[in-house]
Amino acid sequence: MASPRYFAFTERDGQEFIFELTNEERIAEALDIISGKEQSKIHVMGRIKKRQASYNPKWSYHLDPDTISFFAMAIEVCDANMDYVEDHLDEACGAFLPGCFWCPWSSKVTREVTL
């Protein structure tokens, strides 16, 4: 397990979401997306945890670092924008975002974050 590193993704509306990675392979993939080396699997997916993380204070939820991966295409049932997840967090992990799995289609890893 690597030392934690932090990255941001944005959505079409420009909002930013910070996430933590501790897996060397995922860290390398995130860096490839930022550099432009990876141009297909640029979207972020993972399981949400319904509590705020210190590195992502704007949101009442965060992504579990152990579940994060990157994708080119995903099923519709896990797609939602950040605001919608925030506004419907009490419904998440049931019919909305089954299994707490979130895959915002418009997400794109944009930068590494220094805390």
From TrEMBL:
It comes from the Bacteria. Coiled coil: none annotated. InterPro entries: BP74_N, cAMP-inducible_BP74-like. It holds the Pfam family BP74_N. Residues 4-114 form the BP74 N-terminal domain. This is Calmodulin-binding protein. The lineage of its organism: Bacteria, Pseudomonadati, Myxococcota, Myxococcia, Myxococcales. The gene is cmbC.
